[in-house]
Amino acid sequence: MTRHRGRGIASVNYPIGMNLGGDPSQALVHSNPSGKFTVALSSIDLGQGMKSVTRQICAETLGVPVEDVYVDTADSDTGPHCMGSFASRGTHRVGNAVMAAAREARGVMMEAAAEELEVNAADLETDGRGNIHVKGAPHRSISTKDVAIAAQFKQGKTISGRGIFLVPLSDVDPETGEMSPATCYAHACLVAEVEVDDETGEVDMVRMDSAYELGRALNPRLVEQQLVGGAWMGVSHALYETPEPYYPEPVHGPRDFVEYLMPGPGDICPHDIAVLERPAPDGPFGAKGPGEMCANPVLPAVANAIFNAVGVRIDDLPITPEKVLRAIKAQGGARPQPRR
Amino acid sequence: MAKTALQFQHNGRDVAIFVDGGTNLLVALRELIGDMTPKFGCGQGGCGTCSVLIDGELHLSCLTLAETVAGRSVETLDGIKDGPNLHPLQRAFADNFAAQCGYCTPGMLMAAKALLDRNPQPSRAEVVEAISGNICRCTGYEPIINAVLAASSGGRARA
């Protein structure tokens, strides 16, 4: 029995969101009488952090503290339309919609403040701490709370804004049939190192090194969290998970969490991540989306690493010990490839 | 079926409920006591999110008959914080981004608490073993392991 080390690499271009029907998302932003703001969305945060990121985007666009923004998500009865949380689209699509809505609400807020301070709205700026003042004259100031109260009770205005993000439709080139399916691409490259046991066919992850280019990381800790967890999910898809292990034959499928294999805390490996920030021209504050892309490069990188280790090319996922062992036997033994 | 009177300590408080024969502890806690912190994941001991401590030992409440806790002390996630102050493990989970969707978190925290209660300075391998009965879909485990180590007495000494 020998354990063979192998290294594999994979790179991906990942299109953010989709293009079907323009892939729209909407947002509504309004101020409460307290001078705090509510963002209404029907978009869902499943734990990836869209609620935090849209809150940051709204606060930054309005020019108010992040504590003054509340994001109300995940209710399609009360929120405006959203296509959903998938395809790494949340930060980019919903973030753009929130930014547009916050921009409109900011316009109304500045007009209302201008009326109270008896100046031109173009001469006003926000200080990011909940105040609006005349440029160059910070003492001529009014709090966003007082502006909200004045708008509500004196001026009869709603400080509110509407936002939608809709991808421009891409026309098909009549000559070539070519079209642009996405406006924004993220990129990743990952090196996986594995150890393959040529007697059992088992594959152990040794380590991963990766670089992800995802526009501007609006919340670096959430991005890191997403990349760490997502890469693990990639490992899980590469080596463990399937509801139909002998597809198309629906036999011997897992029936519960005991039989549905996923790597546990003892199966993870060190993962060194580099985040490259290249702001996207059409992203909110330059953001793309780190979502699905964090899992994608792991699968081909692991398959390539297994080929490098024992010379078998498995193109059917997950790469189970049984498949590795059958392939090694079929070629008459492990054939380690030159170390990369 | 006749109901049985059942008394035990729930997070330090005496409680008395009537349970049907065969009721499991998870159902008793959630539906009869109203403590929603232990979660229902698989109902067969495969995921760990229903974990609670019984007399300080880690148990899967979905596989525990409610009647077997008569006179014993049951601790759930609801009882680990000190008034408005988070337990050091909860704080460490937040600081280390050890939760995403959060469904596994109650079980992870109870498994980690069981470990730190008996071994305040565990090694990384001991942390891995302690949470190996708990499934997490989102985090890749690394942030959870780091959080438990940070909340251990060794981690707090370094911080």
From TrEMBL, chain A:
Under Gene Ontology molecular function, one entry of this record is:
oxidoreductase activity
Looking at the record, the residues that make up the Aldehyde oxidase/xanthine dehydrogenase second molybdopterin binding domain are: 3-267
| Superkingdom in the source lineage | Bacteria
Q: Which Pfam families match?
A: MoCoBD_2
InterPro entries according to UniProt: AldOxase/xan_DH_MoCoBD2, AldOxase/xan_DH_Mopterin-bd_sf, N-heterocyclic_Hydroxylase
Q: Which SUPFAM superfamilies would you find in this protein's record?
A: Molybdenum cofactor-binding domain
Record's PANTHER family? ALDEHYDE DEHYDROGENASE
Query: This protein is called what?
Result: Molybdopterin-dependent oxidoreductase
Species source reads Bradyrhizobium pachyrhizi
